[in-house]
What we know:
Helix content: 10-25%
Order of helices and strands: HEEEEEEEH
Number of helices: 2
Radius of gyration: 26 Å
Amino acid sequence: MHWQKHLVAATACAALAISGLSPVAAAHPDNGMLLFAKGPPAHAPAHGYRAKHGYRYYPGAEIYFDINRNVYFYLQQGKWLSAPTPPPLPGLDLKDFVNLELDTDQPFSLHDKHLRLYPPKIKLKSPKK
């Protein structure tokens, strides 16, 4: 009888693993059988979950700062670059920003939308080289 419980539990675990269900780490109080919960395994993200990325967008300079990775994104000579510090822009006010929460790790892919939503009060120009 003891081995039959283990066989049933092992078979149930295998069947649930195939179906996407995951076992709960507790046994039923009456019969000692494992309880199972519907949903993804604990190590997997929920179906449909999208990671959110937080940014500060500086409209006057058209610069993004990734608050999790501590990286700035800015446009220079038609290309988006990333760096640990912002480019040297006279008049750049790091207190004038908009908080953004996006589904992408490339905020500049939505730059046209951000330009419409948050037009710069004063457009800062890069110093001439």
